[in-house]
Amino acid sequence: MQFIFEHTAGALLPFLHKAGQHIKNTLSNNVTEIVMHKCKFVLTELCTNGIKHSGEPQSIFDITISEKTITIQRTDAGAAFFPATLNPKQEASPNQSQGIITLSEDDINRLNMQPIDSKTVRFFVDEVPSTSKKNSPTLGEHFGLIIICQSSNNFTYTRLANGENQFRVSIALA
Amino acid sequence: MILENKKVGHILEATILITEANLTNAEQFKQEMFDLINKGNQHISLNFVRVTYIDSSFLGAMVSSLKHALGKGAEIYLTDLKKDIIDLLRLIRVDKVFKIYERINDITGA
Q1: Looking at chain A from residue 72 to 111, which residues have their Cβ under 8 Å from any Cβ of chain B?
Q2: CA separation for the pair A145, A42 (Å, rounded)
Q3: What is the dihedral of CA A72, A107, B91, A155, to 10 degrees?
Q4: Nearest CB to B24: which of A9, A107, A150?
Q5: A24-38, B56-70, B75-89: lowest mean pLDDT where?
Q6: ipTM of the predicted structure?
Q7: CA-CA-CA-CA torsion for B24, B29, B31, B37, nearest 10 degrees?
């Protein structure tokens, strides 16, 4: 099922309600609360990402539900996510020899991406060990991609051949 | 107005008045928190009793407020969180940096 999301803050809650209802209805309410929370986290953060970063007036969401997985895909025609990020001149992270690039790191989380091919990257999060209860000045304030990673089983970004951006998130039903 | 404030002993309790804490109100929340911190409040307890959901933008505003508070020698506590919100804080591990209590009376010395 396809949904159009207009990139305004006011459109957020009605969109979340509509998309959430679609998931519940398709699964005949046979879906756990945990999975619905994960879907809400993912949908919210994909919408927020579109509002903040795409520079475009709208995104297209495709929600596909199979027996075992919910796949949520957001496509927009905005600026590319990764050509700048994959700039070989950027400072190398310790993991880069394995093809993994660390996008951000603070005292609790390390957000990484791993190229799958020349157009697609996969995001994942590592825990930074030895965090004490006390805060530190290196604590990040951007949690959108981290929430999506932690709420899903797979999270990728693809720069499509037609120049569009596609964020694809899979959530297991079981 | 996002926060309703009252003194409980030496703690300023700031109750968040919205149910969906997200992009639409994160900036105002941050501004109100910075104002409370800049006024010299050293112990601020954020009451989440009405909040059913928070997103990354609001979390970012919370962390920004925490960093500002710590820079001024102040403390921020979180109370009355619903299970879903605690689960989200744990999911992204920010439960390690906030001081979380069930109720304001559980804060030592409150």
Answers
A1: 107-109
A2: 9
A3: 20
A4: A9
A5: A24-38
A6: 0.89
A7: -170
